[in-house]
Structures are given as C-alpha cells and as structure tokens.
C-alpha cells in the first residue's frame, strides 16, 4: 500500500532549480533511502515533504490526504515525523521533557483543564508520561531522563531525536543523515537499530544518508538525486551497478 | 510533595500572612505602598516572563497592556461624581458615566480588555521574529498611549484620571500576586508550558514536533497581556492617579529589568527580583538627592538611581547572562542543599 507519494514536485529558489520533478512512491513498511552527492537537493526534498517549504509545483500525498504546502505541525499530526541533519533537540530541557513535548500535539485537554489539573488532563498526562518513559526505555535512554539534552553524548542525542520523533506516533519517519558524525561501530549499530524500530513501531522509513554501508545494508529501494534530477531508482544491487550513479559520484573520465 | 515540604510551605505562608497583618497595622503608608508595588511588579514581571522568558518572544509592549488595565479598572471603579469632577474639559461619554462595578470584576474586565487587544495585535505581529517583534510591539504600546492621550471624553486625555478609589491594599496585591504565581507554576509545568519552552528552545524543531507556533505564541501573548492588565489595574488604584505619560517605554523597561535580573524563564527569580528592584528603586532615591559627606557636599543628580540600575543591568547581561536564577526554580530540597553547602566554614569553626 502506498503511504507517501509525490508527483512531480519541483522547488525553485529564484533561478536555481534545487529539485526537479521528483516522483517518490513509498510503500507501507518499506525502508527507502535518498542519496546523492552534496548539493543534490536531498534536504530540500525533505523540507518540501515536511512542510518547511511549499513546493513550486507538484503535489505531495500522505496516504489519501494532500499535504502539499501544509504547515509542518499539521503534517506531523497526520503521521509524518522527522529528525534533523544537524541535531535540533530542545537543548536546555530534560531528556524526558524532550519526549514529553512531542506528545503535546495529541493532547485533547484545553489550557484551562491543564492549568487547573482537571481529571481529563491528569489522565492524559499520566499516559503521556508512561509512553515517554516506555520510549526512553526502548531506546536505552531511561537512565538519562533527568539530564539536560545538551549534556548527552553525540550518539545518544541522535537517538533522543528519534525517540522524540517516535513520540508523535508517526506512520512514516524521515531521517536526515542519521549516521552523520558516527564512528564505524555506531554506524553498524544504527543499521540494526533502524530495522528494529521499523518492526517494533510498524513504521515506514525514508532516509537521507551518505554512509553507503548503511544505505546498502538497510534500504529496500534507493532514489538517487544529482543536481535536483532523479537519475536512478532501484534496489541496492541495481544502484551499485548503475553507470549514471557511478558517474555522479565519481565523475566522468575526460577521455571516456 | 513530601510531607516536610508541605509543612514548610504552610509555615512560610502563615509567616507571610502574619507579616502582612503586622505591616498593615504598624508600617507607615510609604512602606506599605512600596510593599504593594513589590507585589504588583511581581505580577507584571511574571506576565512578561511568560512571553519573553518562557516562550522566547522579544515583546516590549507591556506598558500598553498595563495602560489598558489601569484605565479600564479606574474608569469602572470611579463613582459618577468623581468622573464628572475629572472630566472638566469635555464631559465623559454617557455610557461610561454611571457604570461603577466592584474592584474584582473591574480588574478582571481590565485584564480581559488587555487580552483582547493582545489578540488583535498578536495576529499581525506574532508572525515576526526577534528584533522585528520587539519594534512592532513597542510601536503598538506607543500607539495605545497616544490614543489614550487623544480620547478626551473617554480617558480624559493628557489630564489623566485623578481621585481613583484607593482600593488596592496589601491583601489585594499580595493575594493576586500569589494567585498569579500559582497559575504560572501550574501553566509552566503543564504540557502547554512545556510546548512554550520548546518554542523558545528551537522553533523549527517545535513545529516539526507538531506544535502550532502561531497558536501557542498567541496563547502566551494573550495570557501575559491579561496579567499585565490586572497588574496595571492594581497599580492605578494604588497610586490614585494615572495619566498616559506614566505608561511610556520606561515602565516596560522596569519590568524587563526585573525579569532579566531575576532570570528569563524563572518564576522564583522574577519574584525575588521584583522585590529587590522595586524596593531598590524606592530606597535608592537617596542617590537622586544631594549627599552631605561632612567635608564635601555632592550635588543631587535626578535620575542617578536609574544610572545605577542601568549599570547593574549591563553587568548582569555581560557577566551573569542567566540572571539570578537562570531557568531554575525554588524548591525546599534546593534550599537545604544550599544551606548545607554554604556555611561549611561556619561548621568548621564550631568544631574547632
């Protein structure tokens, strides 16, 4: 079943076409990667899907609903969560609060119920707290729950970002370079970790990544962008042997 | 809460009430007035801290909201005879002349009017960020003041209002300050309060975690304006006379001073700082007068105390950017930890 679908989305910044006619089809339960050299337009594509930019043209569908140009918080509410290339945690807040806040979008109590601690809010707060602690435990962050997010080691900050994204109850999770800045051992762990959370939370995962070991190890399918244009789509084996992809990454020999 | 903490809290509240009773009967009116001002500035500081400290919006429109609260409360509590005495240039509009309501509803209406105006102002300005928001809110606050100066038959224009009933007393000011503290604590620790703090920490991340930026900023702005209006109402009925000049930028600056010194994002810091700054501003009036040191006579320079406070603000901003409390809050555990740590040299002395 198709979960995320973009049809011919294009993003122009003045005269520069950052992404040109990108067509993504991501099915439920898949792990799909978006790769390409630096400046290929990967993050721009992410920003269009998550609502940071409204595409210049084209449409984006999440399940049945058209989310083209919708505000980021409404897209998140519809079940699409993301992490950031350069970690964006709520640095001065505790690890637990970081996850707690990501539950706020599903809160039904209004502000008066919350301030006056009325029964509905109390009940909701209790279940949010339980869920947050459960997520922290799943991601091995429970012992740090009172620490400020900025004091966590780098790898754990990445994990906390994922925990926070999971707390919004997403159907699809967008990971922007989850392995950036990780050492080889952490990268190996990440591969199995992403598969684990996909199975555990019944997710669909769409990620941007530069570490080819991660991409080839977990992706069901791969999209390759170069200068905003989709140059290849296929499974890891097909991509590894695609002449245009090799050229995009390694350059073309002068006398070829 | 632990049992010990509950007992300690009850004891401190009782001590505070006893102190207020003592102050009410023994202090002279000047001292009582300073105490009232301290409590009112606590309300004003907390309301501004919600907007600036907890939500991270750089708003400078506080004086405008206070002006609305002060005028609405004053006009609603003044008897018709007093109103007619005040409005000798142009008579007051008839629909306001005979309206007189008790103090509490008048305060609430003042707060609600300020909140409504914040809602109207917020719709355009809360789309701005940082310095732009500061300039826009500052502009709106000035606009309110100018409007009040020119609506002769509603606000009595530049003449201001005099003989406002002096309803504000220690019970009103401290009671409402306490309610404000409880409200803010409860709000800040709720899911909504955490969402506001998330916006302060990182707008982009907060938005992609599903927090509607505009709605939540508006929430903080409107609630902040409501309490600013209530504080303004208390202030007007404490001083007994208000005029548009009172609500210039300097008033916003005083409240800003309180929250920066106390710590942006700390309720405890704001409360302590409100008391220190307000009483400081009064008791340092000595500096404005000439000082006789016996051998030399220093001439009085009006406004010297503001120089002292401005320097203090500069020192805080340069060396102690987080203010007195940073984003920390008071807790009995914290206090005991501090007491155990601090007088360690005293303990050693005793042991020797």
Automatic annotation (TrEMBL), chain A:
Where does the ABC transporter domain start and stop, copy by copy?
A: 4-252
Output the lineage of the source organism.
Bacteria, Bacillati, Bacillota, Clostridia, Peptostreptococcales
Q: Does the keyword field hold Amino-acid biosynthesis?
A: no
Domain of life of the organism encoding this protein: Bacteria
- Any one Gene Ontology cellular component term annotated for this protein: plasma membrane
Q: Does the keyword Coiled coil apply?
A: no
Sorted alphabetically, which Pfam families does this protein's record hold? ABC_tran (PF00005), BCA_ABC_TP_C (PF12399)
Keywords carried by this UniProt record: ATP-binding, Nucleotide-binding, Transport
GO MF annotation list: ATP binding; ATP hydrolysis activity; L-isoleucine transmembrane transporter activity; L-phenylalanine transmembrane transporter activity; L-valine transmembrane transporter activity
What biological process terms from GO does the record include? D-alanine transmembrane transport; L-alanine transport; L-isoleucine import across plasma membrane; L-valine import across plasma membrane
What Gene3D superfamilies does UniProt report for this protein, alphabetically? P-loop containing nucleotide triphosphate hydrolases
Q: Which PANTHER family match?
A: AMINO ACID ABC TRANSPORTER ATP-BINDING PROTEIN, CONSERVED COMPONENT OF ABC TRANSPORTER FOR NATURAL AMINO ACIDS-RELATED
Q: Which organism is it from?
A: Alkaliphilus peptidifermentans DSM 18978
Official protein name in the record: Amino acid/amide ABC transporter ATP-binding protein 1, HAAT family (TC 3.A.1.4.-)
From TrEMBL, chain B:
MF terms (GO), sorted A to Z: branched-chain amino acid transmembrane transporter activity
Tell me where the transmembrane regions lie. Answer: 6-22, 34-51, 63-82, 103-126, 169-188, 218-239, 251-281, 301-320
InterPro entries per UniProt: ABC_transp_permease, LivM-like
State the UniProt keywords alphabetically.
Cell membrane, Membrane, Transmembrane, Transmembrane helix
Major site of localization recorded for this protein: membrane
Q: Name one GO cellular component term.
A: plasma membrane
| Protein's cellular compartments | Cell membrane
Q: How does it sit in the membrane?
A: Multi-pass membrane protein
Q: This protein is called what?
A: Amino acid/amide ABC transporter membrane protein 2, HAAT family
Record the organism.
Alkaliphilus peptidifermentans DSM 18978
